[in-house]
Amino acid sequence: MESERAAYWQEEWRRAGLATARRDPNRAKYYAIVAYPGPSGFLHVGHLRGIVYADAFHRFHRMLGEQVFFPAGVHASGLPAVTYAQKVKDRNPTTVHELEQNGIPAADWPKLEDPEYAARFLGAQYLDVYRQVGVLVDESAYLTTVDDDYRAFIRWQFDRLRDQDALVQKTHYSAVCPVCGPVAVDPSETDLSAGGTAEIVRYTTVPFRLQDGRILLAATLRPETIYGVTNLWIPLHDPLVSWTHEGRTYLVSRAGAERLVEQHGGRIGHEIRPAELKGRSVTAPLTGVPVPVFPSSLVDPKVGAGVVMSVPAHAPADSLALAELTVQERESLRPAPVILAVPPIHELPASERELAAGTGSPAERANRATGATKLADAPALQEATERLYRLEFTRGTMTVRDYLGVPVRDARERVIAALGASKQSFELQEFSEPVVCRNGHSVVIRRVPHQWFIRYSDPEWKALGHAALRSMAVSPEDYAHDLPAILDWMDDRPCTRRGRWMGTPLPFDPEWIVEPIADSTFYPAYYVVRRFVRERGILPSALTDAFFDFVFLGEGPGEPTLDAGLQQEIRADFLYWYPLDCNIGGKEHKRVHFPPFLLTHAKLLPPELGPRGIFVHGWVTGASGEKLSKKDVSAKGGRILPMREALALWGPDALRLVHASSALPSYDFEWDPALADAAVGRLEDIARMAREAAGAGAGIPELDAWLFSGMHGVVARATHHLRENRPREAAEAIYVALPALLKRYYARGGVPGDATDRVANAWIRMLSPFTPHLAEELGVGRFPGLVASERFPSAEEFPRSEVAEAAETFLAMVEDDLRNVMRPQLDRSESAPDEVIFYVAASWKRLPEQWIREALESGATPNIAKVMERANAHPELVAHRAEIPKYVQRIAPLARSEGPPSPIPIDEVDILRSAQGYLVKRFGFSAISVHREEDAEAVDPMHRRDRARPGRPAFYLARRGGAAAPPSAE
Ligand SMILES: [Zn+2]
Q1: What is the structure's pLDDT at 966?
Q2: Which end of the chain has a smaller Cβ tally under 10 Å, C or N?
Q3: Which CATH architecture has domain 200-431?
Q4: What is the tens place of the pLDDT at every residue in 907-956?
Q5: CA–CA separation, 373 vs 320, rounded Å?
Q6: Cβ atoms within 10 Å, residue 621
Q7: For 549-577, how does the pLDDT look when each residue is reduced to its tens digit (9 = 90+)?
Q8: What are the DSSP calls for 739-775, one per residue?
Q9: Angstrom distance (rounded) from CA 638 to CA 633
């Protein structure tokens, strides 16, 4: 569709005020939202999925006569806009290319260097895209999360959460870019350019004291092995640095010191070369044992603290590193003590026996088992290490005096506690792999001492969540199944950050800014208020806690400076639109957004106002299966077009149809321009068919009855699936099944007339939710106003006819049987037979088949004697006693494998005779004759007629000149 036509209809919808939500207490309502996007760049075709689903649902409910509310906004909190503005400032080539692609003049770029401006600018772009795609958003409720009124709303939300004891302050380790601020480390890599799958490694540091009072701080994952230490390792070449903390001086690698500063404060001082420490003695904590310090190549100064405890009996690498020492140095070490025991070999699982076999220390045995003989044997050494650590942790018990017989896992906790008491041991966290922010900086882990958390671990709160879940429709089903467990596993979640971060300062502790997951859990409630704030000019200063208490909770007198009538009106609106009918979002929200959304509603509102539905959809991916990213769009030659080009190329309806129907909502689908091309073609076919269906005049009554009955089914299916949030199935009914029905109608001899005109009238309305522009084009002259405000057709507009459907199903089955028999002949390039002679089953055959089926259903084996017994008592069957046994024998196996015949009585002879013209055209026969089995002796040269069964006539394919077709099964 040309963009002018699309724009024309968009303007018509706007002028009709279709998108404006209006409370009407006499009417049902539908209110759904789509997770508002973060302003991180321009939208591309991959972003349309949720918004297209939501628009289709709202349009459908509007056509059911309901009042609908479909607001939109921009989630500007957090980093996206900050990062975007920085990229504009840096004139990042990808960002610049995107700006050019979207026609933004260079003169406007400097304004985008301000994050708040960038957020509003991108938000306006998104609204524009929604308009051009025909999405009917109520713009009077449009918001960004950095608007002053939204901030007032968030302040109320957090005041209430605190009142309800839902917040707590405690120590937290968080991922931070030192330049950009806090980032989320998760596989979506929203904030990152690398390291989304990194895990957090937690070290314990162990203080070893030099005689001069300085402390070498070793980092370990196994602090209990302090009892087996023979020496310390420091880096071979890299210097250590001093780190001073609470009056003490520690020596660690530079990377270690930087991590310690992030996590525990203190200062980094001067460097110390390895040679200065080589051979010097330190005293181990807890044991008081003096051990020497040696440089070794096994120390990676980037990992941990750059100082490593050497435990040769239990650490395969330490055992091998001893070889780097001189004989004299080795002899200066105390013998490596074995400090823990694992069960004897015969009690170990087979997989571990090899590891513990042979002689020597556990580390020596593990090295032997994996073939590690020197430090350079990295894979074998790593295997030895991982397997031995696992074995000792899961099955080991301590053999040292202090912890005799204590399981290793318990000893570890006790050693950590004992070390902690010294105030010279620290938890040290680091990522398992490098993590890099979107702007290319290294991300670190920072310890935050008084972090605010939302107490999602609270069991009573979880119980509220479970109760709310029971009255919700969650799709897809597997997510509905997982959600209770996700709630159970939810832990307290940090809800505030400091740093360069957009959002709302916490009202009672304004150094902290609410982070974006926490300020997007209750906002559907605020959309309702937002319309009034905008239209009635309510000042943010009037949006006090008293105001929100009244509007959302019905508590208190409201805000005294604000008109009471207005507040009552807003309260009424809130109670009208709430509960929210559906929250629509991508699968990345499954764990992050939906559970807090659910829990916050359960905490703040009474159960009857809790949300009614969650609808999760998959991603639009690139060829690699990754979620489409803006990089795919902006890169020159990239396969993904920016929105404005995609709209110009395919038009809004084809794009909408691709998103609504390419995959089940829960699945990802790969973006492919061919999908959009195909949708354009399909919509052209549909437009042509809908226009051709216009007409007047009576048709063939049986055929019209069948067409209406088919329409009854199609409309009922489309309606049902749209009500149940199953867009793909609904689209299948409207865009595939319905045209197929019309095609069959014409193939069976139907012509455009009254009947097809009625079908077209309904069809055009059904096209409106998914392809609204096309629906309007086709509706011109048919409907007094806009198709979008017509009623969605009701299945009741089309009478069902079971007889007509049964007749058509019967005919389709006969066609199948004919095709199956003829296919091998046609495959051999034989010409089609000249004539088909049908033999319709004698009516007595219905009963024996019915009895056999009854027997099968009750689990019995069909029994000829039993059938005969019943037949003897049946006047109609007595005359056929001789034929029954053979018949029963033949159909018993078929009755097992085939479904039952239609319960609707049909006149097979009549149906086949009226379909003669159709079958002739379809199969190329020159003649067709139809006979009842009992009258067909004279026309049955191949003795086929006794094979006829009710619903499955036998037939004979004859060739002119008397040559019979090869014998066929049926
Ligand atoms: Zn950064």
Answers
A1: 47
A2: C
A3: Alpha-Beta Complex (3.90)
A4: 999 999 999 999 998 888 888 999 999 999 899 988 899 899 988 999 99
A5: 7
A6: 17
A7: 999 999 999 999 999 999 999 999 999 99
A8: HHHHHHHHHTT--SSHHHHHHHHHHHHHHTTT-HHHH
A9: 6
Distance separating alpha carbons of residues 906 and 260, to the nearest angstrom = 86
Residue 919 to residues 739, 749, 811, 827: CA-CA distances in angstroms?
21, 11, 10, 20
- What end-to-end distance do the CA atoms of the chain give, in Å? 51
Q: In angstroms, what is the span from residue 209 Cα to ligand 1's centroid?
A: 37
Q: Quick one: 3 exposed, middle or buried, by C-beta within 10 A (0-12, 13-18, 19+)?
A: middle
Residues whose CB falls within 8 Å of the CB of residue 755, separated by 6 or more in sequence, listed in order: 699, 704, 707, 708, 745
Ligand 1 center from residue 111 Cα (angstroms): 21
Please name the helix (run of DSSP H) or strand (run of DSSP E) that holds residue 839, with its range, or none: strand 835-840
CA gap 719, 611 in Å, rounded: 22
Quote the ligand 1 centre to 190 CA distance (angstroms).
13
Assess contact for 588 and 46: CB atoms under 8 A.
no
In angstroms, what is the span from residue 182 Cα to ligand 1's centroid? 9
194 CA → ligand 1 middle, Å: 12
Determine the distance separating the centroid of ligand 1 and the alpha carbon of 533, expressed in angstroms: 36
Confidence of residue 968 (pLDDT cuts 50, 70, 90): very low
- Ligand 1 centre from 181 Cα, in Å? 7
Q: What is the distance between the alpha carbons of residues 246 and 603, in angstroms, rounded to a whole number?
A: 43
Stretch 635-645: mean pLDDT = 66
Ligand 1 centre to CA of 631 (Å) is: 18
Ligand 1 geometric centre to CA of 434 (Å): 13
Distance 81 CA to ligand 1 centre (A): 13
Q: What are the domain boundaries of the chain?
A: 200-431, 683-803, 813-958
Q: How far is the CA of 177 from the centre of ligand 1 (A)?
A: 5
Separation between Cα atoms, residue 534 and residue 124, nearest integer Å: 16
- Say whether pLDDT at 147 is over 50: yes
Quick one: 824 exposed, middle or buried, by C-beta within 10 A (0-12, 13-18, 19+)? exposed
Structure token digits, residue 75:
């989630």
Q: Say which residue the tokens 């459908």 belong to.
A: 60
Fold (topology level) of 683-803: Isoleucyl-tRNA Synthetase; Domain 1 (1.10.730)
